[in-house]
Amino acid sequence: MAEIFFPEITPTARQYTPGKQPETVFQSQNGSTVLVQFGGQFVNSELVLQFANISDEQAVEILRHYESINGGDTVKFKNAHGLRGMSENLRAAIQKGDDLLRYRYKQPPVVTSVYPGVSSVSCSFIGVLEGA
């Protein structure tokens, strides 16, 4: 298992949804509810990076990155690798739990051709715990 750095391309938009603690809800026939929480770590956070009007070469770089990820490999983000343009505090919040939280592609990147030589790309990632 390897951590592979995301390409050095600045996203034009980001969407981050923090994960939640694993839990199971049990509901009895009379309607009473019991919540059982498993652990104290947040899991399944989601990160969507959008790259509007980038060159086709940059779009190919993202596609090659996606193709380079194998089975247990994860995506590593740094300031210059997918998180550029984000404040230090927000970047730290997204990387919270960096010792255990690992991002994987949630789905393949979506490439939209804008006009010849220019594309827009959307990448979706999910944060999962490893080694916990």
| Percent of residues in helices | 10-25%
The number of distinct helices, counting runs of at least 4 residues, comes to: 2
Mean pLDDT figure: 86
Taking Cα atoms only, what radius of gyration do you get, to the nearest Å?
A: 18 Å
Principal-axis shape equals elongated
Write the layout of secondary structure elements.
Layout: E1 3-5, E2 13-17, E3 23-27, E4 33-37, E5 45-55, H1 56-68, E6 74-76, H2 88-94, E7 101-105, E8 110-115, E9 118-129
Parallel strand pairs: 1-6
Antiparallel strand pairs: 2-5, 3-4, 5-9, 7-9, 8-9
Keywords for this structure?
132 residues, alpha+beta, five-stranded antiparallel β-sheet, two-stranded parallel sheet, 2 helices, 9 strands, 15% helix
Q: What does this molecule look like?
A:
By secondary structure, this protein is α+β, with helices and mostly antiparallel strands. The protein has one domain. 15% of the residues lie in helices and 42% in strands. The protein contains 2 helices and 9 strands. Strands 2, 5, 7, 8 and 9 form a 5-stranded antiparallel β-sheet that branches. The longest helix is centred in the middle third of the chain and has 13 residues, at 56-68. The radius of gyration is 18 Å and the shape is elongated. The protein starts with a strand and ends with a strand.
In short:
This protein is α+β, with helices and mostly antiparallel strands and 132 residues long. It is 15% helix and 42% strand.
